[in-house]
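Quick one, probably user error.
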């Protein structure tokens, strides 16, 4: 079980209010304000749903993610490609490690500055995930 809410500071209510975080016992919660009431939602359900959505996007564009990673690393050798491909095949394992270790606060701040937001209702259902758009070839 995670010790902290993975996306703290990036979860918002339908009214645009940032969700706080709290613990109920040892379980981390997002505190979603809606209709004048603070609803506690287990963070694991939201965090896993967001990671699942990100997983689907990564797998949908696996070839682009792989080639972009190689370009970012500045390497295009067989061993680096095998390492990147292995990482993409083992996304679930990496996500479990991320849930256990947490997302560094600097990474959460960076995602927030880029416009990453998770909008949920008081039941913890994800209504939308706002993500920074990658500039396409026609963008300037």
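Nope, works fine. Designed sequence:
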């Amino acid at each position: 079980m995670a010790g902290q809410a993975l996306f703290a500071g990036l979860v918002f209510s339908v009214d645009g209010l940032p969700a706080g975080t709290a613990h109920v016992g040892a379980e981390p919660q997002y505190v979603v304000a809606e209709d004048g009431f603070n609803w506690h939602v287990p963070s694991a359900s939201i965090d896993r749903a967001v990671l699942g959505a990100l997983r689907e996007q990564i797998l949908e564009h696996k070839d682009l993610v792989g080639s972009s990673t190689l370009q970012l690393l500045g390497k295009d050798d067989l061993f680096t490609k095998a390492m990147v491909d292995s990482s993409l095949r083992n996304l679930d394992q990496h996500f479990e490690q991320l849930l256990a270790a947490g997302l560094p606060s600097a990474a959460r701040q960076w995602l927030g500055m880029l416009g990453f937001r998770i909008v949920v209702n008081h039941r913890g259902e994800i209504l939308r995930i706002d993500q920074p758009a990658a500039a396409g070839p026609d963008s300037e």
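The chain has a mean pLDDT of 87.
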